[in-house]
Amino acid sequence: MIPLYQVDAFTDRRFSGNPAAVCLLHEPAGEAWMQALAAEMNLSETAYLVPRPDGFDLRWFTPAVEVALCGHATLASAHVLWETGRLAPHQEARFHTKSGLLTARQASGWIEMDFPAIRCEPSAVPSGLLEALDVQSTAVCRAGTDYLVEVEDEGEVQAASPDLVALAEVQARGIIVTAQATLPGYDVVSRFFAPASGIPEDPVTGSSHCALGPYWGAKLGKSELLAYQASARGGTVRVRLAGDRVLLGGQAITVFRGDLI
Questions:
Q1: Strand residue runs (E) in 152-223
Q2: Which sequence positions are flagged as catalytic?
């Protein structure tokens, strides 16, 4: 039997935030099998954990591809390890990934993850990007494997309705659309589209905030931000800047658990 969990991440309410599957393996599994299970789960990410003496190996798969960095499925994985007693409440979760060592800890009902900061670099606007998004941009930059598109206001982020077929032609993992928030208590609002990675719109994207944090921190003169991802499900991410790292805070709740047979 292989334990399998579904967890809603970046929320404290079931059926909101971003759902992730967490598969607790006893030993490494083949890539084809992991990809097939991710397609079967049909969530934006399925996480695979394998124990090792100094933590866990962690890999993430969308229904279509493996990705190098995922925030919400890491949050979900840490949540499962503490909830099931595989880690004591005071223990740090340590994940060995394709993006290096990632850690997480519990603090006052939240989970804070230590991720690499992603700096936005000046970039030519890819052909077809803005046409596919159908937005008026105020800035476009390259953010690692994504593009970040700033628009005038929160309303334009909320109203964005991209041509996903055309957007999938853009050579990027995904597209971040963002603006300064007018929502009370929040600093930043965003949405994340990744049709080229098999995800039309990701409900709440931890990894995009590795870029949103440094980008908006510099613009707003802040080292701590509260961000809202304005998908239909919606979710909240706390962001703290720490040099070349970004500390991402979120909550999570288990929806169901079972076993693969």
A1: 174-180, 188-194, 199-202
A2: 45
